[in-house]
Design goal:
- There is one protein chain.
- By secondary structure, the chain is mainly beta.
- It is built from six helices and 16 strands.
- It folds into two domains: about 90 residues, no CATH class; about 260 residues, Outer membrane phospholipase (ompla), Chain C (Beta Barrel).
- The strands form three sheets. The protein has a twelve-stranded antiparallel beta barrel.
- The radius of gyration is 47 Å and the shape is elongated.
- This is PF11276 family protein.
Amino acid sequence: MRTLLPAKPRTLYERYIDSLQTMRQNLANVQTSSIKADYAPLFLPTTFYKGVSHRIFSYAKTDSISLTSQLDEALLNIYLHRPDLVRTTESQLDNIGPALEVNNAIKPKNQELTDKVAPKTAEPEYVDANIEIYKPNFWNYSGDYYLQFLQNYVSNNWYKGGESNYSMVGSVTLQANYNNKQKVKWDNKLEMKLGFQTSQSDQLHKLKTSEDMLRYTGKIGFQATKKWYYTAQLIAYTQFMKGYKNNDPFVYSDFINPLNVNLSVGMDYEVSWFNKQLTGNIHLAPAAYNFKYVSRLDLSKRYGLKEGNHTLHDIGSECTIDLLWKMSDMIKWRTRLYGYTTYRRGEIDWENTFTFQFNRYISSNLFIFPRFDDGAERDGKYGYWQLKEYASLGFSYSF
């Protein structure tokens, strides 16, 4: 009696090879059907075939439904109801060339099953990244500072006379402008200027102010076109210190003496000319409200108010032109022309500052400021015109 030994279990590798061979045999036994030319009309551009009508109206009828009859009915339906879809005819195709008959069925090439087993693509490793999204900053900040001095010495025996003196002037201009890039702008500018000078001939005041200004300009605009904005503008200005004349104790000006506030509504035009060398804006306001206040009643008449009144209210039109022209890397001209009229009285301020920049920190300024105000007391020599001018040299810084 023969003893049957138990079969040795196959390894995982052997079972895998057997499964591949079985799959290969199954693929080799698959019979590839020949290509059916009857399906061609379904995929070609819609064509008018003569045989369709012949077969439909033929006397020889069959009870069985074939693929050919179904195609004929579908094509006949198109010919009768949608002839606009027919692109060509059978005669036109025959003129181009006869149809080729496919005798041999296309069989797939034998391919090793192992070739079909593609290597696994290594999956990319994803590392968690900390993504920071920053909120856009629509604010733009800038500033301009300078501190300049002037010294003048004249000997006692100078043939034309005169006196020695020292003077200084400091200026700070700060700007904070908002632009959300969606037709809304809000501009803010604060200007502060203060200057002093000495005078040996003045027995009452050894130090007096030569420049004194505190001014805020704010405007909010809504874009109308590329360069024009509907704008509301607010201008408020006064000074820091008391203003005197030589050997005169009378106070001619002081903080909020006067205080001027102008609110206007109009249009702004953005200036960008000469390859952006001349920039700025022009504000035209047909409607403007002007408010003037003095706390010292003895200054009322001097600043165009009725005697004994602290305030003045009037309505008119206003125009402000604020430009900066960079003539070169060393020379620039900043000008501001402000005009207001009630059609009974008018004010015009024209400030001009010519800056000569020697290097990043050293500059010289020439300031010319003509002014017209027919609401103030008329001067016997200059009429309603006033003029201020100075030149200085010193330190400057911009950002």
